[in-house]
């Protein structure tokens, strides 16, 4: 092999596709299975149906890592499960597992950040220089705004206006739209894979069953395989180290057979997700010692992207939050000094029809919804390693002024929905400093030198030629918007310059 890629999300799948396209012998190791009805031509041992119904829901949780209140616990429930949970002192994070990574559970938002965002990057990376890489992502994923706003989009637009916030905008979504949601049709995507157009009920947090969300297992991954890459699903990387003859060695467990194997290559791309990439690196430096001398900046500039949400229970303004794509519109709030984005605020409908719930509760949830914010926080958090796994004390105190401002705006918008009750930060368990995120970013941040970053502008780890990072941990600051498109664009750049 010329290169091993760990992970198949927005960083790994993009890198693998472009490296294979350039003729490099590329191996992708992915700890999860192929998911969903569009993968029924895959080997039965490698694919799983999406977790639905009372029986299927047991596959919803893959594993849980707890480092909270002085306790350390790690438990694997289902090696072929969908979601992974990390519970830190004040921060809870949920990420995905499977071929295509986080694209299975994100809301399909593909947004390009403003030029000011790139001021935190090394000087080689600017908004103008990144333009062609963003365009390549657009060509593959073909994002477009929702063509026919739903009831919840109209209610949100009115609520934002009532709150005195900037008007709502329909953002680009990686969803295949058809002419009529009631009559889905076949759509061939940029990778030549056939999807189905949106039924306005399929874009959910637990995998898209109607085949309309343009996930990475339908685009970049097939493109990589078509150009000669090899993908091994249900193969979880356990450790990384420098190879005896140079290059890098990866030890992994094949969950299909239960056996452990090793592979080596002169180049290794870590794209296991913002937390798991760092867990592997910390363990290689401070645990088993397979990669001594990794920069001391590992774990710095960590951010939860200022994710913040509230549940609006039984609103009178909204009749069915489950109809339409999970997300459609947002309001952008900029800094008072005009220097870039402060935060965004949007509404996310609840995937009621996809959850194994009693009929009465399902009907109540249809009248309920979530408001969420993402913000450009200070990105001054840190991750550490206790010899077993990651720890962090990051919480709302990371940027209290921003969280207070977001909560105030969110509550003003919530008022127009006339909910029976509003629960701000309902996912934090009552912790006043608690946060919940699906966007753990930073920790392997790009920098000019090993004193201010972990990787250079190429995504290559300082002092370790051939070792690259290509996921959300590269961010030196939070974008305050959905990070997926920038992760993919940076991976396009990493792969292009590496090849």
From TrEMBL:
Any GO molecular function: steroid Delta-isomerase activity
Pfam families: GMC_oxred_C, NAD_binding_8
Keyword ATP-binding: no
Domain Glucose-methanol-choline oxidoreductase C-terminal: 437-491
Cofactor(s) recorded in Swiss-Prot or TrEMBL: FAD
Listed PANTHER family: CHOLESTEROL OXIDASE (PTHR47470), FAD-DEPENDENT OXIDOREDUCTASE 2 FAD BINDING DOMAIN-CONTAINING PROTEIN (PTHR47470:SF1)
Family assignment from sequence similarity: Belongs to the GMC oxidoreductase family.
The protein's name: Cholesterol oxidase
Taxonomic lineage: Bacteria, Pseudomonadati, Myxococcota, Polyangia, Polyangiales
